[in-house]
Amino acid sequence: MINLSKLINSTALSWDAKSQPNPCSWKRVNCSSDNSSSLDLSNNQLSSIPIEFIDGCGRIGGLKLLNFSKNSLAGLLPAFRGFVGLESLDMSFNSLSGNISSQLGELPALKKLYLNFNSFSGSVPVYLGKSMVLEELQLSVNFFEGEIPLEILNYQNLSLIDLSVNKLEGSIPDSIENLTKLRILILSSNKLVGQIPKTIANIPTLVRFAANQNGFRGGIPDGITTHLSFLDVSYSKLTGSIPSDLLSQSNLRTVDLSYNLLNGSIPDNISQSLVRLRLGGNFLNGSVPSSFTPGHKLMYLELDNNRLTGVVPAQLGYCQNLALLNLAQNTLTGQLPMELGNISSLQVLKLQLNRLYGEIPPQISQLHKLSTLNISWNSLTGLIPPSISSLQSLAQLNLQGNNLNGSIPDGINSMDSLLELQLGQNQLGGRIPTMPVKLQIALNLSSNHFGGRIPNTLSRLKDLEVLDLSNNNFTEFRPWVSFNASGNMGLVNATKTNNSPEFVKKRKSVVLAVIIAVASAALAVGVIIIIAVSFSRRFLKVNDLQSQSGEDRPLPQVIQGNLLTSNAIHRSNIDFTKAMEAVADPQNIVLKTRFCTYYKATMPSGASYFVKKLNWSDKLFQLGSHDKFDQELKVLGKLSDSNVMTPLAYLLTADSAFLFYEHTRTGTLLDVLHGKGEMLWTGKAVTV
After folding, report:
1. In 3D, which of 266, 270, 267 has the Cα closest to residue 283?
2. Which of 206, 333, 394, 433 sits 20 to 30 Å CA-CA off 351?
């Protein structure tokens, strides 16, 4: 070990044979006085490893674990010869490339191989240890192509196979059932086709099967969930109906069949152990399942964008753990059941774009954890319940496009968490009450029966981005909007206030907006516009809120990711798993806008990054959208203009996209243009 230390140039390791003559006391070396059992060189900004070092490690007879992950290693994978006792080899999160042929074939004891998040290409390697004792194979996020090799099935001890985010084609071999110890099989985000083999159901140990973001056709095999706990075959081209026994297995925890071409009804026999069920974006008909009973563990139910009919079942009130209920974009009728008020853990309720009628039940006000309530575009009548103002966690309230009447409850001013209020296209009237000062995304009161003078209290909403008062009966509009447009010479009469009668008469079409555009390069602007138009939304939308319990809150499942930067420091620092942990914690939110949310993520190395979460519309992730997004980001990532902050990396999940940026403490463009003080209404959009 002392001789080997001379071959590695890393200040982070601090290996010093003079001050510490016993290598067993060195950082990240685990050994006894006469034998080394593990050597951890991860996250050390290494750009290369001398072949002499590899050969030297191979002569350490007791070495069982060798870890070079999260460095900046480039080039081909070295050949590993010797290493008679090596059981675990981790070269993940580097920039290694080329084919893998026989470099690993001489390892007699290899059990765990991690080569994920590199740039390897060619066929999936099949020479992975001459003793065939491999247990875990992690090759995700590379550029492997071709078919899944049948030779892999000769490794009978395999318990984990992850080939996700590659370019694999062909079908899943039927003989996959021969891997009788397989627990986890992940094939997501490839180009696999054909049918999902029925033999998947014959693997008694298989707990998780994920093959989303592929091109599978045909039906879902009967009995596929006999042993599974986690099933994800979303975003493919599966057809037919959902097998009657698919949701009934007692071991099930999550099922995701969203965005396929499935039809027929949803089986009503849903397992009590099921935590998450996602069936959105299909052609399912029939009614919403109503077989829920007390004690059901369901936390996330997403049946949106289907052809479901009937009523919202009152039995949903038995699902006390339910955090997200999304039945939007169906043809549901009937009244909102008051039993929904019993779901004390509910955080997101989406019932928009249905045919619901009747009044909003006052029991809704019992949902004190609710952050998103969207029952827009239905046929609801009656008053807005005054008790709705007790929902102190509510950030988005959307009642637009109904037939609600009466006035807005005065208590709405006490809703301190409210960021967006959509009440347009109803029959509301009376006085506009004082609004919560934290409203930021939008206040929409358009197409109602409000009249008289527009209240000056609206000028208190200094963070509001969109105010829509159009198509009402206002008779007086006093210029409480202040203008300070100095430094914008292109604006005509920007600093003057127009009080003419003609101005008042045009009260229903006045648009006051100041748009400041900063363009550093035509290419940069072009790419940014493409991304903004294709992948952003006008209003903030809370999508997959997780449980507040860390144990029950699974991290977002990554289906595609890439390091865009060539900077070795950033490539070694960025840890996607740690970033997802940061995003799952609301305390890491730095900024919320109507388009996205920014998080601060601190990596194991101590470096910090901004992680920008884009809020997607429900139908954005159609097949092929990820590839388009990947292409645009790769172009943007190559920009070198000092005025453009380019992403360093990105991750895609089924619901969201995450962009990684260098953490800066110098402020934003808003700070440069307006200073650190409050932004005046000059930068807002107002429609009267």
Report:
1. 266
2. 433
Name which of 84-88, 91-95, 416-420, 508-512 the model is least confident about: 508-512
Any bridge partners for residue 36, and if so which? 31
| Domain boundaries 1-169, corresponding CATH code | 3.80.10.10
Q: Which of 233, 235, 240, 200 is nearest to 219 (CA)?
A: 240
Question: Nearest-CA neighbor of 288 among 348, 253, 334?
Answer: 334
DSSP SS3 for 577 = helix
Tell me if the pTM is above 0.85.
Answer: no
With contact defined as beta carbons under 8 Å apart, do 660 and 611 qualify?
A: yes
343-374 tens-digit pLDDT: 999 999 999 999 999 999 999 999 999 999 99
**What's the CATH number of domain 522-670, 3.30.200.20, 3.20.20.80, 3.90.1030.10, 3.90.920.20?**
3.30.200.20
Cβ neighbours of residue 446 closer than 8 Å, sequence gap 6 or more: 424, 425, 468, 469, 470, 471, 472, 687
The stretch 243-256 carries a mean pLDDT of: 95
Other C-beta atoms lying within 10 Å of the C-beta of residue 251: 14
- The single-letter DSSP state of residue 202 is G
How far is Cα 243 from Cα 499, in angstroms, rounded to an integer? Answer: 68
